[in-house]
Amino acid sequence: MNVPEIEAGQVPEDVFLLDVREPEEWRAGHAPTAVHIPLGMLQQRVDELPAGVPVYVVCKVGGRSANAAAWLNHIGREAVNVGGGMMSWAAAGRPMVADHEGKPFVA
């Protein structure tokens, strides 16, 4: 599969960021502006994504998000995979929050 990809440290701050991880992964730490739709629910909830703008897709390490981005591109949306996922996001020092604590996530 040929999916556009960007490194986590290079993701612009003002993009639509879609997190496709499972709820427990999301609660443990996510990007503050991300929208959470687990991969298994993406097909049913795709209409919640904005049309006409690129969707940057992230998961834990990049595999699920690559699949999600490939599917989104296949159905005519513009999607970009965030390479390395939230592991790379944290390593790049990008902001994260944890829902269960309401405090910044510390990698």
From TrEMBL:
Domain of life of the organism encoding this protein: Bacteria
Keyword Lyase: no
InterPro entries in UniProt: GlpE_sulfurtransferase (IPR050229), Rhodanese-like_dom (IPR001763), Rhodanese-like_dom_sf (IPR036873)
Residue ranges of domain Rhodanese in the record: 11-98
SMART domains: RHOD
Keywords: Transferase
Keyword Transferase among UniProt keywords: yes
A single MF term (Gene Ontology): transferase activity
Protein name (database record): Rhodanese-related sulfurtransferase
Organism, scientific name: Sphaerisporangium rubeum
